[in-house]
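Structure ticket #2291
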Amino acid sequence: MRPAEFSELASVILSRESHGGIFVSSGDMEKPSVLTIGWGGLTYFWSRPVFLLPVRLSRYSHDVIENCGFFTVSVPLHDMSEALKYTGKVSGRDENKFESGIITAGKARMVPCPIVAECEAHLECRVLLKSAMDEALMDASVLSTHYRDHDMHDLYFGEVLSMYYTKD
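Resolution: structure written out below.
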């Protein structure tokens, strides 16, 4: 395990989000939740590294993050397209995705949430702020393209407590 540099990992996350997605987990090892995201990013807010995480209100993971207050970001550096598709389609309300045999829950270093053990890069985050999107303030082209069903995102600002690589 080695520490990850902010700028290097920010670039890797952006690339992976636009080419298949990354995993976000919350909950704990007993009752974990994992989803696939293709939006979000690593940036600086309030003089600290922060991961901006959008989660639709309708998602099971939204409720889990609300109750937990922490999340992890697991970034695959190899092809995990089938696992990303699976975690993006199946709801945690219906099954524990970590029990599917497709991905494995690994122990995070600082937070109660699991990481996706097959991934090479990880962030561990504590929620600092949640902000609801307001349709009335949103650009009409974004609304008509991404929110036709009005299933909005909440934006979670997660302070990055730890960022590291588990594999090279």
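Closing remark: Residues 79 and 125 are 24 Å apart (CA to CA).
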